Amino acid sequence: MKNNGYISISLDELYNEGLRSIVLVWNTENQYGSGSRTNKGLTKEGIDFLNKAIDLGIGIDLSHANINTFYGMIELINRCNRPWLYGRACRYGDKHAQ
User: Fold this and answer.
1) pLDDT in the model for residue 2
2) What is the pTM for the complete model shown?
3) Contact 85, 51 (CB under 8 A)
4) C-alpha distances out from residue 65 to 2, 12, 13, 18, 34, Å
């Protein structure tokens, strides 16, 4: 995981410290994907990050993702047969994720 201005610790270390769910994006674009105010989807780094989180058993919160990032995350999570969640502010909800 890169230092994104907030944390500079590996996902493994965060998991070992108790992390069990994570939000990938917020309103704007970051190195992993795009939030609700942008139009792009998951990046290669975002896909790698999600795969690592899924392997560790970390829950992926779909909140704040734009439609492209949202569906990219759903596709990846479902392909791995893992649960997903949306803690708040998910604009698309159940009807789009079935």
Assistant:
1) 46
2) 0.79
3) no
4) 20, 23, 25, 24, 6
